[in-house]
Amino acid sequence: MADVTTMAALWWAVIFSGLYHGLNPGMGWPLAVSAALMERKNSAMPKALAMLAAGHFLAMVGILLPFSLMIVLVEWEVQIRMAAGLMVIAMGVYLLINRRHPRFLARVHPARLALWSFLAAMAHGAGLMLAPIFLGICAIGEKEVGHQAAQSLMGSNVTTAFVVAAVHTLSMTIAGGLIALIIYLWLGLRFLSKTWFNLDLVWALSLIAVGAFGTYSALAGH
Amino acid sequence: MNLRPDPTFHASPKLAMQAPVENYAFTVMLSPDGSQSDGIAVIDLKAGSDTYGQIVHQVIVPNKGDEFHHFGWNACSSSLSPLTGHAFLERRYLIVPGIRSSRIYVIDVKEPLKAKIHKTIEPEELFAKTGYSRPHTIHCGPEGIYVSCLGGGGEDGTDGPPGIFIMDCETFEIIGQYEMDRGKQDKHYDFWWNLPQDYMVSSEWGLPPQFENGVVPEDLLSNKYGHSIHFWDLRARKNIQTMDFGENYQMALEIRPAHDPTKSYGFCGVVVDTTNLQGAIFTWWRDDDGKWQSKKTITIDPRPEKPENLPPLLQGFEAVPPLVTDIDLSLDDKYLYVACWGLGEMHQYDVSDPMNPVLAGKVELGGIARGTKHSNGRDFAYGPQMVEISRDGKRVYWTNSLYSTWDDQFYPDDEGGQMVMADVGENGGLTLNKDFYVDFPKGLRSHQIRLEGGDCSTDSFCYPSV
């Protein structure tokens, strides 16, 4: 029963992290507003959101897949989960100290939204933020299915990685898309700068919190 | 770093026009002979203030001989693009280069009345890190602060082509050259861009030996000043097309793209057509095939004048050339202001149809062999030169000096620095405002103006006006 509750909480964490990333203008929703306005047609907005989502999804999968392959080393599970947690903490600490934005992001052509979204998610450790949650889901999954062959365990973890990335990206796109739509249709551009908050500090602290949770739950054996 | 975007950052030009009006102007004060230090004058623009139209603070630099000319902000509305991650910068610092010394001052104007020097970049550092000299135009953009330079390396700035370098927008460290493929570009002056469409346009004045000691008449008459503009892939840092207006169009200077980023056109002012002494404005645009095109859309005729009334430089021509030395476009892309520094006129063109500009207003002030007085009865040295428009488009400010050595050639009997303002009518038209007249301290001339919170030649917008 405890596992079921934890599992539900972890999936909610996947969804909430998606909403959180989506609301952050730094993950790109203003670009969807801009695209619709620049091209003077409504259809440009879903297209831009889709490109941003594609880039974000790839960045999530890119981080989660290696972990899903590693977790087959069942006897090292605790160590892997701890290492993952520490990595996320390290990324958070790095972003906390280095508050500057990577300049290479500014060199991406403004129309290459998928590429930009991928690089932005990578540079800000958006995928890493999901890793401890994902590993937690995998760990519970293992317990439930018992001792399977490594092959099928890996297969189910890979599937989980894709599902986690998809659910996260979907909730991100819904949140970002909603705010973009509201600004585009009703509030107007004036609210673009009004709704923009500096989340740099909160973001870095979120990474540290998620990393700490990952390390703790690995040790506690959840 | 702020928690919210700077309130002076606006998503679109339209929002910038609706924002509160300017309270202060920052204007360059320069010592033409280097006998005094240059500085930035802070001028009160608050209507009804006791010190309206007065210099209320001065930032005087410790060195002499810098020769201030153009300058710009560390951050502008371009920061509202999520692509660059600069949303929380403050519009707080003015980047002020000396075009004679190649020294750059970063001035903190957070509190305009207590503005002070924040950082100084010595010329040696600029030379070593960029290979360029004589820094000039400043724009803040995707990769930080972009600075165009008029000179290359070496003592006289002719060792290698001049170009643009990039500076970090937080630490003000020089990062290095911008160009990865400059193509035919071998001279430099102004540049500007359209950020969402990812293009940049740059222009040409001449190399340092062609301007530092005054205009070189032989070079001008043999068409050796710049007459091309260059189109760049902004983020790839690559020259994609060089457009030659024709060698008689000498000194293609100011580049003014439409502010609305959905538009793919802009203007460039040409100082003088050597075949007939006309001043000219070209409209440039991108055609359906993606090629850049241009067409001369405004010409301004010279005025015949008796040789004895003219400076020695112009006596052989028996005419006063208009000398289009600055242009500026209002934020709604409706009015283009054209400074005719030789004639002593400020023109206002309605460019709602950019291919067919219509003269909508005009002010006569100063001028070679004319010296029209201000409507308040006061003198105006030289002619209308650097022009800046308020964000709402209702007030047009300008100063009078072009460049120390050139002032002396075209106006050998004039001296002084002035800044004036004209009101824009409801349906166009331009009228000098009698109450606004700034006389600069003795021995100092004036050049570029920047308005607190941004103006019509600084901010780049990432979202269209709708």
Helical run tally of chain A? 9
Considering the protein shown, what is the CATH homologous superfamily of chain B? YVTN repeat-like/Quinoprotein amine dehydrogenase
Helix content of chain A: over 70%
Q: Which structural class fits the helix and strand makeup of chain B?
A: mainly beta
Apparent shape of chain B: globular
Number of domains of chain A: 1
Q: What's the β-strand tally of chain B?
A: 30
Terminus-to-terminus distance of chain A: 12 Å
Strand content of chain A: under 5%
Main sheet: strand order of chain B: 3-2-1-30
- Choose one word for the global shape of chain A: elongated
Query: What is the arithmetic mean of pLDDT of chain B?
Result: 96
- Total domains of chain B: 1
Outline the low-pLDDT stretches of chain B: none
Weakly predicted, low-confidence segments of chain A: none
Please report the total strand number of chain A as a whole number.
Answer: 0
- How much of the sequence lies in strands of chain B comes to 35-45%
- Return the average pLDDT of chain A rounded to an integer: 88
Radius of gyration of chain B: 20 Å
What oligomeric arrangement do these chains adopt?
heterodimer
Give the arrangement of secondary structure elements:
The complex is a heterodimer of chains A (222) and B (466).
Chain A lengths: L1 H22 L5 H11 L4 H27 L6 H21 L15 H11 L2 H20 L4 H38 L2 H5 L5 H21 L2
Helix pairs in contact in A: 1-6, 1-7, 2-3, 2-7, 3-5, 3-6, 3-7, 4-6, 4-9, 6-7, 6-9
Chain B lengths: L12 H6 L5 E7 L8 E6 L10 E6 L11 E2 L19 E5 L6 E5 L7 E6 L1 H8 L2 E9 L2 E8 L12 E4 L6 E4 L13 E4 L4 E4 L14 H5 L6 E6 L4 E7 L4 E9 L7 E9 L5 E8 L5 E9 L2 E2 L7 H4 L3 E2 L3 E6 L5 E6 L4 E6 L7 E7 L22 E3 L5 E5 L4 H7 L7 E7 L5 E10 L5 E7 L15
Antiparallel strand pairs in B: 1-2, 1-30, 2-3, 4-5, 5-6, 6-7, 8-9, 9-10, 10-11, 12-13, 13-14, 14-15, 16-17, 17-18, 18-19, 20-21, 22-23, 23-24, 24-25, 26-27, 27-28, 28-29
